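To whoever is on call:

I kicked off a structure prediction for a single chain this morning and the downstream step that reads the tokens threw a length-mismatch warning. I double-checked the sequence; it's 96 residues and nothing unusual in it as far as I can see. Pasting both halves so you can look.
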Amino acid sequence: MNNLNKILKHIRIFNHTTQLELAENLGMSRSYISEIESGKKTPSLEVLEKYSVAFKIPLSAIILFAENYDEKVGLENIMKKRLTGATLKVLNWIVI
């Protein structure tokens, strides 16, 4: 799940949340959030569950996005990012 850090960052940005805001919400330091998003640290299952609760996204969806995330350059990558964003909107709508 080497793309998990990118997905967590996309989720945070999609929800217009700063690293500091997220850190405060999750009870962590901003530097730890930064290390997770940069791939320097791997989030534990407990941290992933906190993201799931904070952003109202099923943990399984976070993992699914991470497993299917692709770094290819070009239109395909842009479309995948937009689809991921749209899917997150739908998931947020369903949960609320």
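Update from on-call: the warning came from a stale cache, not from the record. Cleared it. Sanity check on the structure: Helices lie at 4-14, 19-26, 30-38, 45-55, 59-68, 75-95.
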